[in-house]
Amino acid sequence: MIKVTAGADAPERCSQAFTVAAVAVASGVEVSLWLTGESSWFALPGRAAEFELPHAAPLPDLIESILAAGRITLCTQCAARREITEKDLIEGVRIAGAQVFVQEALADDAQALVY
Question: Which InterPro entries match (predicted)?
Fold first, then answer.
């Protein structure tokens, strides 16, 4: 599990979270990436393309690789505060809340990173 709270407001932390998630997926690790706070905007089509950080992999590519073999979840409350609904999301991204987060965190072999 990787929880990313940062977005364009803290680009290095944001990029690190997506990079770690993508590398983990490429390594065969089961990944669940949670978008909260300012990273919530990256659940919307086109928003990741607006993100730029020198010497970092493009965010759209990282999201694509994570969704290919992992899971991306947008926090329910974060979505509601930004008036984001399921119909607004990139295909493959889901909205879920604290109960699902806790279930995943308590699953066997679960480890969590927060960015």
Answer: DsrEFH-like, Sulphur_relay_DsrE/F-like
SS3 content of the chain, % helix, strand, coil (to 5): 50, 15, 35
**Domain tally, the chain:** 1
Neighbours of 55 (CB within 10 A): 5
Distance of CA 27 to the CA centre of its chain: 17
Q: Which domain holds residue 25?
A: 2-114
Nearest to 35 by CA among 106, 112, 93, 99: 93
Q: Give the mean pLDDT per block of 10 residues along the chain (115 residues).
A: 96 97 96 97 98 97 97 98 98 97 85 78
